[in-house]
Amino acid sequence: MTMWFYVKTADSPKTVGDVVCASNVFEDAHPKGKYSWIMQEGKGPEEYWQIMGKYEELKDLSTVALLYRAGDAIVLGEVNDDLVTNFMDPLLEKYGFDNIKLAAAATKR
């Protein structure tokens, strides 16, 4: 399932993403080194950011989520449902329950 988080805030997409990334650094024993989430500015006419997964020893990045503004909210989109708690915990702590909404879409098979 694919998830979208809507966070009602005046903060920028980068600021919201930085909150999520700060809580997602893993230094367990992994052959590819430390794994972390980092922010990367999107390339396009509209302002957007990407949360990317990065292993310390590798140059390849994987997309974890897209962030952009929609009205008075920041959208964290295209999130795999396996990662919901990685997003919810830091977002709830920073923005509170009343300022976060979720949407889900079933993945086509």
List the helices and strands and how they pair.
Elements lengths: L1 E7 L4 H10 L2 E2 L8 E7 L7 E7 L5 E10 L2 E8 L3 H12 L4 E6 L4
Antiparallel strand pairs: 1-6, 1-7, 2-3, 3-4, 4-5, 5-6
Helix pairs in contact: 1-2
Describe the structure.
This protein is of the alpha+beta class and 109 residues long. It has a single domain, classed as Alpha-Beta Plaits, CATH 3.30.70. The protein has two helices and seven strands, in the order E-H-E-E-E-E-E-H-E. The protein has helices at residues 13-22, 84-95; strands at residues 2-8, 25-26, 35-41, 49-55, 61-70, 73-80, 100-105. It has a seven-stranded antiparallel beta sheet. Helix 1 crosses helix 2.
Task: Give short descriptive properties of this protein.
single chain, 109 residues, alpha+beta, Alpha-Beta Plaits, seven-stranded antiparallel beta sheet, 2 helices, 20% helix, 43% strand
How many domains, in number, for the residues? 1
Termini separation (Å)? 11 Å
CATH class: Alpha Beta
> Count of helical segments?
2
Number of strands: 7
